[in-house]
Amino acid sequence: MKKHIVPLLLFIGLVFWGCDNKGIINGGYYKNDNMDRLNTYYLYDFVSIEKVKKHAMESAYTMGSTTANYYFSYNSNIPSHSLELVKSLSEANKLIDDYSYNIKYAFIRNKSGEIKFADCSESPNDKLCNL
After folding, report:
1. Is residue 126 domain-resident?
2. pTM for the complete prediction?
């Protein structure tokens, strides 16, 4: 009977972990040798701004690098495959800029660890929303 408890607990844990990010779906990413990251996500309308901020703060980050997250409307076309093939962070930023009209939220943690979050639907002219 004890053999069945461990898989059951693992399953329950995975269900709770998966539910925490419900409505935020990976849409592709770029990562270079310096550990700079640019992540994109599809975002359903029911996801609160607080949940997006929490998700952003939990993103992988390496001190001395940059992590940027862009949250797009769930019905957007994120250039996922192209993003994974670019050769530099500036190319990745340019690619995202081409699709910036669909960004709902943007987040960046820079090389110094400073954080900025923008609600692009409220502040579409924010520098973070328009690369």
Report:
1. no
2. 0.81
Q: Is residue 4 part of a domain?
A: no
Q: How many domains does the chain have?
A: 1
8-14: long-range pairs with CB below 8 Å, 24+? none
Domain limits for position 64: 23-119
pLDDT at 56: 97
Confidence band for 78, pLDDT divided at 50, 70 and 90: confident
Q: Using alpha carbons only, give the angle 35, 62, 82 rounded to the nearest 5 degrees.
A: 35
What pLDDT, in 10s, does the model give residues 10-26? Answer: 444 433 344 456 899 99
**Which tokens sit at 83?**
């993003």
Residue 83 CB neighbour total at 10 angstroms: 20
Answer for the pair 117, 53: CB distance below 8 angstroms, yes or no.
Answer: yes
Tell me how far apart the alpha carbons of residues 81 and 83 are, in angstroms, rounded to a whole number.
Answer: 5
- Does residue 38 lie within any of the structural domains? yes
| Helix H or strand E segment including 106 | strand 103-109
